[in-house]
């Protein structure tokens, strides 16, 4: 079992801020332009759609449980990998649980989530179920799951590894990947291209704001979405003026 | 590829109004009385459950994509059938997308929806996913989908046809069918029986309002739901008096 | 076809009250401690997540329909088992429908639910669909379903039995089992252990409130969750003082 | 729990023989002509596709198991409903198990099947799994299942009732229904129309044999399939001559 | 509804022969080298795994049925699109049915398949069910389906179009695409690259035959699979000698 | 990424032989007696149902792929974990692949399987797909998969780890677990109890052979299955005589 390597998280505060303001739809488009087709986690729902999430992936992998391993009701904080992960996760990290899409029991609960939030974690993502979901909806902590389930995780899950590459929602998540969430869901960005993706996504949204204003005003999409040269020239002018205004 | 025939949409304003006030549950019952068992689109959710939708089906059919057709990130408004549909849909029409139930990428997005709303479209229905769902929840436009997904449609969909018979949510939708949506979901009514269905559904809801008032007041369902002759006589009297009151 | 035996429902009012205040997550943990692994109904959603539900299971079993049995649009209150159940359910009972997880038509509707509420029923649970869901969201009646569907139940369901053991959401439900629901979902408690489960769940939640307050205050989970002897001693002291305060 | 009423099985030997010679495809068509749309059990496979099965349904219903009921490894032949069914099933009956489509453990095994075969049963149908499938493939006993699974049934199933209406493969099966199987699968025929269905199916196959001989000889389907008057006249002649030949 | 354009099918006999000898696994690899990721039809089974299939796609599209369209038991050969397709398909064409993956009724049967075989069709592919599967297993006609089902197609399917782009098994199939089947399943090759794919696949299989002989003789895969320069040199020598031998 | 610890495989030859002769059904029962409920891999099929498989688990874990990792058509034998596993697996080991149940591309192929067979591997198990399945059916190598698929694995899989605990077919598989397969499927036995399970399973099958002979001869299951004291005494006598005979 591998418990992961030291982690370097070095996005600039400006990039963090851009990612926080950009939609997962736009980020996914920028990733597709770079050849990435499968980066949005499928089948998850936001328990706090009003919160945005940006952080670095800290992964936790579950296998199916078996009666000779970890089938306790009370957990041992010295050996249980789930518990070790809770006390290992750090500032600005998002706990991403590979629960194999299994929703016949929970994969995490409210007290543990409170602890990782206190340790500075930026959010929680699982492609399994969560218990205590009513409490999660009250908590200021971005959380994404597949379904609620009241049963404690040990009934179906055996935590095996942390900080290894995992699958979550059908998508590869590598430790240290940048993970961004909004009300639509969660997108994973390979760390080495996160700055460039954030910058281009920010630009794209400015352009689309302009496109949308034209469409709202009655324009056809022809020449406007995608924009032709004339529309791009108008956009430059609009943007220049916006700059002057502010 | 077929782009459809001229469309005649000729429901009376009174029928439109009745359909707007009647629940999809009642309409489905009226259709069952006429022999139609499968007219409610399965597995969809309303993004704007507070809005009612009534219109004529304008269908758009997607096939799976392939790397030699339409796998662009930017779309060509002159050839892409999705884009042609956006600029072809008309007043009082509902865009119904056959996305084969596929939710591994979106089937439509916010800017295009803004455009069809501006063209007078009455709503949007897809048995696939949508992107920009947070923006859709802000938009005054009835929208029904299977799931949110941030990825742009070209990753899994290739738009092929418009205004051909399609399947959506496991139900046949013919161009020109009347499409009605409420918070429960979407029902499809063959155009030639829409007036009669609307009228009978309206009558049925009046009767059920009376039945419900009796049940609320403590009545058993026996003799009341369904109503026997005595209850029907009471109902006639109640209705007569209601008329006098108003 | 079996229409069930006389039912004795004899939980104390204090137990009822404890069950109403305890989460399904805690109850599920107490049941797991007693060896029960599969007691939380999977895949259901609360239509009224703001209401709590406690009652005794009154079961209703549906088989697939066939054109020679019960395929009417209007129902016969003298022979249709669904209708007989509506007029048989009693005070503090929860109607639990085994709809085989089938959601291609509804399994119950609003007028019947109004009637069972008037008869004193404590809630409604179905692993199929419901129609009139917008009305259910307005009604002061805890209701749990798998999905909405406008189509009336006779299109796919044939009501066969009442008050026999059934499956619902993948879980055994016996007539007279105690059924508890909160915003997370529904848990089934065998009647003969319900008092003990309620008592221990109540105690567990007190302890977890203390644990959570420590974690919120910055404590590690080590020694605290699960609590070691030192924490348990602190908890006793805390609880004693809480008692003094009140 | 209901253990069923006395059963009268009174098809003539000639009807039995016709059903044995007719395909489930033809029988399903005859049932559709009488208005029955859903009589073929979905998702099952024949373990002995070389054997034909005709008999009367003897149903057995399973609910999900729970740790306080029937979770033994060894079964009690005096109380376990599965075991009671094994010693209750009679001559020419087909054991039809409603296993809720659940395949995470078996629903029956080889020793019990040997016993019911010895009691004169005509076959075994389950929409769950079977264990000992290699032995079933060696046994002269028509058997239809959804999947193999080595785990004994008590891990997921709790036998509740026998000879009640059940669902199997999504189809209603009433005790005493006529059940017919071939290599394609299993069809259920309401007992009161079985003679007429058998007779018409027999006639239909004769006609289709003639149609097929024409299509094989190069004929278009036009006028032939379905047959027009000219083809029907040829068929009468062909059939008359066949009669003379034999 | 579109019934398709004239079709030009112009692969050389040598290419046909190469495709007949090459596995779908190898063809899929050659397509991946050209950027095609999704060309193998998922979830189908060969009813005649002993036969190879090569031909040009002739597509047939089904929508869900409805009681006001095509819900007959007997079909009209003049208007029913399924029947029109049967009498329109030509030499070397493979009938590819888009049945939306729906297996609750058949999508085609034995008499129609006999007719299209007589018209020179090269095979039959459907992502729905077939009836008369026992007869199909006896017929010298390559056939690929998702499941058997005895019920006639009109219960769930309404044939709409022929020779339009469709989805089948999750893959785009365009009229005129080259369709190849072996015991593993079916691959679709865009017509304009079929010659080049066939040639390279043929070469790849020769090389893999050599690689396999080395691995069988005890070689590691290192340097051999994929082959390094030394192995490629050995292969050239082996191939040259094979040529001399023959 | 963890590539596993040294492996000690120390079952006696007699135990190996017993496991080879015992059915997975019997082994699963013995495991259930020891408290293990979930040890039979669900949803798999044997490509060579005529072969028995006994060996020690050598696990290989795949995550979803992404365009920046391992998305090559040709594989690098020095870095690709799949390829490293092929050259690391040893005598009597069974390669167990955790493919997340994903069947939209293969998880392994024929040349690699030939190599591991040459290295002494005892079999291959994957809960994903395999390509070259026609060749696998010809190969003397026990192989269990979920489905065939011609597409090479890199399109959906990224090999991450070997010899870590994995899930396969919904069951935990630990490196070194004993893995047994027959025509029904695959069961996993924790290594430390394998000797005892093998011994008791062997005994159980002897007893069941006796029980079956009685049932075949017309006995009721009462007193015989499960056997009461009288039957057990008969069995002892029968077994003693069998011993004398041989």
TrEMBL record, chains A, B, C, D, E, F:
Gene3D superfamilies given in the database record: Ribonuclease E inhibitor RraA/RraA-like
Sequence positions that bind substrate: 109-112, 131
Reaction(s) this enzyme catalyzes, per UniProt: 4-hydroxy-4-methyl-2-oxoglutarate = 2 pyruvate; oxaloacetate + H(+) = pyruvate + CO2
Enzyme class: lyase
Residues reported in the UniProt entry to bind Mg(2+): 132
Enzyme Commission identifier(s): 4.1.1.112, 4.1.3.17
Highest taxon of the lineage: Bacteria
Coiled coil spans: none
GO MF annotation terms: 4-hydroxy-4-methyl-2-oxoglutarate aldolase activity; metal ion binding; oxaloacetate decarboxylase activity
NCBIfam families per the UniProt record, alphabetical: PRK08245.1
Function: Catalyzes the aldol cleavage of 4-hydroxy-4-methyl-2-oxoglutarate (HMG) into 2 molecules of pyruvate. Also contains a secondary oxaloacetate (OAA) decarboxylase activity due to the common pyruvate enolate transition state formed following C-C bond cleavage in the retro-aldol and decarboxylation reactions.
Family: Belongs to the class II aldolase/RraA-like family.
Assembly: Homotrimer.
Name the UniProt record assigns to this protein: Putative 4-hydroxy-4-methyl-2-oxoglutarate aldolase
């Amino acid at each position: 079992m591998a418990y992961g390597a030291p982690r370097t998280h070095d996005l600039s505060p400006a990039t963090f801020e851009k990612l926080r303001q950009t939609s997962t739809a736009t980020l996914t488009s920028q990733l597709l332009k770079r050849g990435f087709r499968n980066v949005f986690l499928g089948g998850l729902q936001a328990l706090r759609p009003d919160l945005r999430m940006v952080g670095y992936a800290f992964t936790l992998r579950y296998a199916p449980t078996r009666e000779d391993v970890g089938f306790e009701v009370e957990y041992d904080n010295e050996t249980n990998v789930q518990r070790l992960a809770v006390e290992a996760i750090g500032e600005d990290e998002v706990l991403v649980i590979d629960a194999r899409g299994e929703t016949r029991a929970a994969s995490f609960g409210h007290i543990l989530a409170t602890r990782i939030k206190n340790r500075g974690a930026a959010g929680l993502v699982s492609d399994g179920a969560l218990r205590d979901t009513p409490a999660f909806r009250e908590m200021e902590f971005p959380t994404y799951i597949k379904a609620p389930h009241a049963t404690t995780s040990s009934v179906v899950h055996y935590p095996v590894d942390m900080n290894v590459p995992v699958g979550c929602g059908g998508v590869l998540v590598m430790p240290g990947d940048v993970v961004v969430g909004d009300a639509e869901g969660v997108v994973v960005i390979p760390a080495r291209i996160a700055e460039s993706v954030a910058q281009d996504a920010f630009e794209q949204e400015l352009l689309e704001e302009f496109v949308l204003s034209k469409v709202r005003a009655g324009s056809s999409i022809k020449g406007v979405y995608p924009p032709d040269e004339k529309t791009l020239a108008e956009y430059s002018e609009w943007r220049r003026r916006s700059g002057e205004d502010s």
